[in-house]
Description:
five-stranded mixed barrel; 11 helices
Amino acid sequence: MIHSRVHVSDLREHVGRTVSVCGWVNALRLQRTMQFVIMRDHTGLAQVTHKRDDGPLEAQLEALTPESAVRITGRVVDAAQVKLGGLEIVPEAVEVLNPAATPLPIDEHTALEQRMDWRFLDVRRRPATQLMFAVQTTLEQGMREYAYAQGATEMHTPKLMGTAAESGAEVFQLGYFGRSAYLAQSPQLFKQMAIAAGIDKVFEIGPVFRAEPSFTSRHATEFTGVDVELAWIDGVEDVMTFEEQMLAHAIAKVADAHGEAIAEHFTVEVTVPTTPFPRITMAEAQEILRKGGWDPVGDKQDLDPEGERSISTHIKEATGHEFVFITHYPIGIRPFYHMRAADDPSVTLSFDLLWKGLEVTTGAQREHRYDVLLKQAAEKGMSPEPMQDYLNAFRYGCPPHGGLGMGLGRVLMVMLGLDSIREASFLFRGPNRLTP
Amino acid sequence: MIHSRVHVSDLREHVGRTVSVCGWVNALRLQRTMQFVIMRDHTGLAQVTHKRDDGPLEAQLEALTPESAVRITGRVVDAAQVKLGGLEIVPEAVEVLNPAATPLPIDEHTALEQRMDWRFLDVRRRPATQLMFAVQTTLEQGMREYAYAQGATEMHTPKLMGTAAESGAEVFQLGYFGRSAYLAQSPQLFKQMAIAAGIDKVFEIGPVFRAEPSFTSRHATEFTGVDVELAWIDGVEDVMTFEEQMLAHAIAKVADAHGEAIAEHFTVEVTVPTTPFPRITMAEAQEILRKGGWDPVGDKQDLDPEGERSISTHIKEATGHEFVFITHYPIGIRPFYHMRAADDPSVTLSFDLLWKGLEVTTGAQREHRYDVLLKQAAEKGMSPEPMQDYLNAFRYGCPPHGGLGMGLGRVLMVMLGLDSIREASFLFRGPNRLTP
């Protein structure tokens, strides 16, 4: 007789009945008179209790190995002494659907790099990591909900480009039917093209590729980007408002769905941010930091990681807020397509968003005036020829617009208090890591 | 005085008031005593009516060019004689935010290839194409709604791979810090790894890359794939059920939100499919087709495009249904990782889904037993070494599973009756097309 699958978290509803549970052997305790199997599925742990009887079932249970995939059919019975839900399964049949070899290649003491070699086992055995992917799902859905409610259109821009338009050095190059193609390091040029195509608000979640030999805890050669581009804005403030509202909505959704579980597994509290987020100009931020002894030489244009952490700490102390927009970046450290302030052409109408000291977003109003764009590209020493397809989008009625690019892994990293972007990815890619 | 932006579709609510409308010059009619500007934003068309008065406004309107991005501020007045909503805007100020050069590089008679060179203008000027992206947004959201309700997790699997595991010939190769990497031609291996990682149901929408020199109306070198993988299935039927339910839900959502507009712009009706979809084995399909004279030589293993169209027509006549699952593909035309039928090892537990004669999905139960998988790979002449990372996922308790890969562009193409996948993409990529 076939019994349909019941999730471990639903066993309580089936006390007194025979059910099948599908999952993995979490642990085995084979005692003199009793055999205990702790089963795990994606909803929880359950105890299977068998009294030795010299029968075939005893032999089957004895032969189980940790992490084998099994279907166990048995009666669910009340058992107040059992810590796992106060119930146990008395097995009637055990089916090994895929045995796990022994020993397992990793255990709970294995270092991160080796765990990444066996990421599927690492993820499967860590309830916190399972939770992280559930949080990712909810977070994305929350961002989409907000974006759709604002009238955004989900676009899928190409990752294959004919030229390394934005900046050649950090771009992967590939063979393409006898010529070269390049991997998009962001949807930037294409989402602007979508704005020129009359899409009012562009939303995209997809992979972005960076050929940077960076080995920090926050860089990857491939990561998931959340991209937004908004047409007909009155200024960069519209972009910041969109982002803070989108994040507040999505974080509230995560807190609601997973707040307790996150507190349990990651020992962090998810605080739903109030809006508006604090804003501070780069000049103000640097003034504050320098008073605290940052950059004693006084030649830094950008914030370094230490500066990001310090200014976030300052804002947290001053306002209680975990987020801060740093605005008005100097033109020297922003790309040519960022619009410059009319009243101070040495700064751009741009921002970074920091969350608990980590940059999670870069955004800006874009320069949509063709002649100004050409001039700014020339000032950066860029030749217009390789990017003519991009520039053409500004010659036939491109509206004012601005947008943002957010790193999904960084948001998860900060939200869950992870040490490294490696742990916020399913299968991390870095200069030294292309597998599994 | 600043007036906030009003969408054209909302003008009726503002009759008697002064508003700003932002959009493009759709058409100009400059008559002897009157100037008419037809404005377009993403919500519709509106008429701007100005009586010549030798003033500065007259000169500004006279200098407008088609497709320029403009903000026009004026009074909304009732005008029963105006076809566009029975109202017009009497302008008070015109601001050209980005002028369009003349002449425009394409018009409504331009052939497809040249329109693709200027895709942003092509999309902007075609309300039907604008609608297509709205339909795409709704369709994806419908699929996600269904998948999430079933407990699916949104995963982002890497597009960069260390080896060309699945089949070397069709894979793009790139330089990667002194060695080679490859672009994933599907998330296949990685979504199976997610199943081995204990993710119960995997959902992903993302780019897939095919280095095939195919020049048909339905192939692209980069397209958006919808991927699903389900753990602990009882058989491939579970995968087909998931797909038909997901599609029925998503298509119903599209029909509800856009059915009327689709009928108007594409002259096709969106029929919400009933479930279950018809199913037919490959052997049955070929028998039916051969009776009709298909494949007179009698050596075809797979359906060719003509066969796909014919069998869909047959099913439509027999059952009234637009969809059909073709099941039990012979092992010779399926990859090594498809599970074979226990009662007939010459066929796989796999399917294609055809919609109105076009293949939109391939799916299968996967072989999760390590020894069987090794044997099937060897039979296909594949060496296990380059795919050891993949094979390892089956050595430590990988549950039974199956899934599907759907081409989003193909679904849009069939739904809207488009002639080519080129028109179902924002920026198409093919062997001869890497720009814009």
